[in-house]
Amino acid sequence: MHLPSQSTAVADKNSDRDVRPIGVLDSGIGGLTVVSALRRALPNESIYYLGDTARVPYGGKSPSTVQRYSHEIASLLLRENAKTIVVACNTASALALPTLEEDLPVTVTGVISPGAKAATAATRNEHIGVIGTRATIKSRAYEHALRNLNSAVRVTARACPLLVPLIEEGWLRSDVTVKILMQYLQPLRGDGIDTIVVGCTHHPLLRAAIQRLLGDSVTLVDSA
Ligand code: DGL
After folding, report:
1. Is the pTM above the cut of 0.90?
2. Is the CB of 93 under 6 A from ligand 1?
């Protein structure tokens, strides 16, 4: 999906600006929340978005499969002349960022490090929760990024594998979804976190329910 910049073509002709698109990749459509944030921050940039809806979800797949898929999607973005690549998918960021950075001829930005920075800046009691896919949580990528920034930080991480299928199904307000969410979040709440990284592109669609279940004193940080 090519999203042209919000500026005029005349402005592009008269400036030295690099008009090639920013490439954004995700395992599906969840990364469009990241695209909205990018468009707000960089209204003059055009964006080429590729969501791998044919092979979503990535969250239950092996590291080597996620790496292979991420490299394939990134190659397609390069073919569209992307000048830089944003990996909006947390699972791909957790498992494939180092090899993408190594292999691609353009800069690559994932969501783990920015999310960890925002969370360490937000926490007051240095106790941060992380939710995400099984693959993201198993990789401990957020834990490492958070501890690199602040070695005193305590991290309580929880994989929430049932949330992506429920969200894909459109069951955003269903009682079943809220009950499952409660089951996932209860231990984090009981553990005393004051900040949570919503570490999956799908999860912000449940933002209101997550905030309600954790209470207003907990700060939510998402990939966007
Ligand atoms: N895009 C994935 C992520 O942010 C969530 C969906 C999936 O499992 O592919 O981790």
Report:
1. yes
2. no
